[in-house]
């Protein structure tokens, strides 16, 4: 029998990678994924056995690989980031235990601001063009207005906003102010802020979608992001609100309030979103309590 000659591992990986990774288009398209992977990937951090932990980390890597993502803003990394990055052949930049960045391209200058548990930022260096400032963030929750299915009973929009927590607005503004200061050192750079904001969107709870949400709510966390000049890539690409299609919380807990709480925001004219979609299906059980959000940006 004639033997098949195996391709060198590096060449095989390049042939299997999306065209942007191979440089065929000079990385004109940058695919950014944000994903809260649930305590290291379906609670991998709670596994005592190393083999069981690695198996769950590999399932997360499989989802990322299948998505074609070039950059990942990861939340609830919890010790799994290095193993996942190794599976993908990606660069890895953690900060604290929670948030991290993974990238198929080099991760350059650190741009992190605020507290390590809440924010990590860096310059991502795709081929054929200027770097992109990317941040992975996590905003804490005060009142579970989107988890307990009865938590909104009898509460007005004003009450929901008040209960959302002034401390959360202080938190997100501190991050955004820090981002503005860091990126001011590189004028014209495109900036992406992505992650789990544990907040609903004021763009979803709008008058045009009152029939889906039952009320209009100016959620203050996403409004603060918009006031800082950032745009919601998912909503730009999907302007018609569809609560069932849009939700990122929660594919694992359908009995809870279903809402969009994971976002990819961007600022700057150097990139523009071509498409954005939710991902919550994989072979076997989905390995997180959050859906992932994938945005394809065109570099201009």
Automatic annotation (TrEMBL):
Database matches in SUPFAM superfamilies: DNase I-like
A Pfam family the protein falls into: Exo_endo_phos
Transmembrane segments: none
Keywords attached to this entry: Endonuclease, Hydrolase, Nuclease, Signal
Signal sequence range: 1-21
Superkingdom, natural source: Bacteria
ATP-binding keyword on record: no
GO MF annotations, alphabetized: endonuclease activity
Endonuclease/exonuclease/phosphatase domain mapped to chain residues: 33-290
InterPro entries: Endo/exonu/phosph_ase_sf (IPR036691), Endo/exonuclease/phosphatase (IPR005135)
Protein name, UniProt field: Endonuclease/exonuclease/phosphatase family protein
Source organism: Paludisphaera mucosa
